[in-house]
Each structure stands twice: as structure tokens, then as C-alpha cells.
Automatic annotation (TrEMBL):
<dbReference type="GO" id="GO:0016740">
    <property type="term" value="F:transferase activity"/>
</dbReference>
<dbReference type="InterPro" id="IPR029044">
    <property type="entry name" value="Nucleotide-diphossugar_trans"/>
</dbReference>
<protein>
    <submittedName>
        <fullName>Glycosyltransferase involved in cell wall bisynthesis</fullName>
    </submittedName>
</protein>
<feature type="domain" description="Glycosyltransferase 2-like">
    <location>
        <begin position="6"/>
        <end position="111"/>
    </location>
</feature>
<dbReference type="InterPro" id="IPR001173">
    <property type="entry name" value="Glyco_trans_2-like"/>
</dbReference>
<dbReference type="InterPro" id="IPR050834">
    <property type="entry name" value="Glycosyltransf_2"/>
</dbReference>
<dbReference type="Pfam" id="PF00535">
    <property type="entry name" value="Glycos_transf_2"/>
</dbReference>
<keyword id="KW-0808">Transferase</keyword>
């Protein structure tokens, strides 16, 4: 029997993309789907768009303290066996949830699963293919060889058992950029992820996204995050060197 899946979408002023996000979830036609959208009282047309889907999802519209707080609200409400979050400018590829559900049905001892994702621009055009292939290569290694070096996990393509929250709590709301990396490292302390080479989602980078406009600050918080999990000076030094190299690459490809 396929497990139930809860998808959480934190939403705030992404009216240009939110319809594609919601449609990508609902069009999965997954038989045991719970979809929760947590909007922080958007001031654009996001809420008007979301209102047209109210019979097909649970909409929470209230002030929050940021993206991580919104995700946690949804995770605390979720009832699915498997949970994930999908940001309001990203989207699922066709058949993604079926592949996820079948993995957990066939591997009942698996705690979490991570797959591949396309990187796209605001028009949905594929970009940064070398970055995608590099992280794809890292995920073929054991996490011990890359987890302290960089966040090679595709956030929108990662799913875990809701029961993990009973042991680990929820996302760290003090983190603005790397709440996902911190969460992967906490999950990793329990079990390495199952890794799928399947393309499950599209991760969008655009002018107003954090990944597109604030990558320098993101790397600063990234280093602070890895330092909490890896006190080793050697690991921290490698991580810092890697971040510096990646920043230079990002500056060249932007």
C-alpha cells in the first residue's frame, strides 16, 4: 500500500509562480495526498490565486516570522506518513509523488529519500547544468565524503518519514537560508538517505529568490551551520575553501 504524503508549501508574494507550483502538486493524482499551503499574508495576488484552490488544499493565511516558521507550521499540521516542503516558486515534475510513494512502500525501513532536480530560471528554462551534475556526482558518494563539504541535497526532491520529527524536532527557525542543510545533517545522524537518480522537481532561481539574489549571505550562514555539526577544523577549512570556490563560480555564471 502506498504511504500517505503531506506536501507543505510556504508562500509569500510569489504570485508569478504559485499557480504552477500548486498545479504541479495537484496534478500528481497521488491517491493519498495532503497539501498544506501556509501563506504569510501576501500583498500581491498570491492569496487570490490560492483561493481558487481552497477545495483542493488546506490554506493557512496568517502572519509568520519567515519561511522556516511557515514550513514548521505546515509540518506540525501534517498527517501524512511521508512529508516534504515545496517552495512557492518550485514545482514537481510529472509522476514525482508516485515514485516517492513506491520507494517508501518497497523500502519500509528507509527514513528519507533524496532525488534529482532541474535548476530553472523564471521562465522554466534549464540553467546551471554543471552545478546540477556536480551535486549529482557527489550524491553517488557516501554522505561521509560530502556532507561536511557542501549541501549536495536537492531540497524540493527530498522526502522523509514524519516520525523523524518525534526524534529530531522541527526546522531551526533561527536559520533563514540553510534550514534545509541543517535538517539533512540532523537526519543523517539517524540514517543515510536513500538516493534516487530520478528527476523529481524543478528548483527555480530568479531575480527575487534568495538563491538568486543573496547567495553571499547564504554561504555565510552555511558555514555557521556546518560548523555546529562538524567541529573538526579540517572539515571546516575544506568547507570554507569549497564555499569560496563556489562563490567565484556563481559570480561567473550569473
Amino acid at each position: 500500500m502506498l504511504p500517505s504524503i503531506s506536501v507543505i508549501t510556504p508562500s509569500y508574494n510569489q504570485g508569478a509562480f504559485i499557480r504552477q507550483t500548486v498545479d504541479s502538486v495537484l496534478s500528481q493524482n497521488y491517491p493519498r495526498l495532503e497539501y498544506i499551503v501556509v501563506d504569510g499574508l501576501s500583498t500581491d495576488n498570491s492569496l487570490a490565486i490560492l483561493a481558487t484552490y481552497q477545495s483542493q488544499l488546506t490554506l493557512i493565511a496568517e502572519r509568520d516570522t519567515g519561511q522556516t516558521n511557515a514550513i514548521n507550521k505546515g509540518l506540525r499540521l501534517a498527517t501524512g506518513d511521508i512529508v516534504c516542503w515545496l517552495n512557492s516558486d518550485d514545482y514537481f515534475l510529472p509522476g514525482a509523488l508516485r515514485k516517492v510513494g513506491e520507494h517508501f512502500a518497497h523500502h519500509p525501513n528507509s527514513l528519507w529519500l533524496t532525488g534529482d532536480c532541474q535548476i530553472v530560471d523564471e521562465a522554466g528554462v534549464h540553467i546551471q547544468e554543471p552545478v546540477r551534475q556536480y551535486k549529482r556526482l557527489l550524491r553517488t558518494l557516501t554522505p561521509a565524503l560530502y556532507a561536511g563539504l557542501t549541501n549536495a541535497i536537492c531540497q524540493p526532491s527530498t522526502f522523509w518519514k514524519r516520525s523523524a520529527h518525534e526524534q529530531l524536532g522541527y526546522l531551526n527557525e533561527s536559520l533563514r537560508y540553510t534550514m534545509d542543510y541543517d535538517w539533512w545533517l540532523r537526519l543523517l545522524a539517524l540514517q543515510p538517505p536513500a538516493v534516487s537518480r530520478e528527476l523529481l522537481t524543478a528548483f527555480r532561481i530568479h531575480e527575487t529568490s534568495k538563491g538568486g539574489s543573496e547567495f553571499g549571505k547564504q554561504f555565510e550562514e552555511d558555514f555557521e551551520t556546518v560548523s555546529r555539526h562538524y567541529p573538526s577544523y579540517f572539515v571546516q577549512t575544506l568547507h570554507r575553501w569549497h564555499n569560496q570556490a563556489i562563490v567565484q563560480v556563481y559570480k561567473r555564471i550569473k
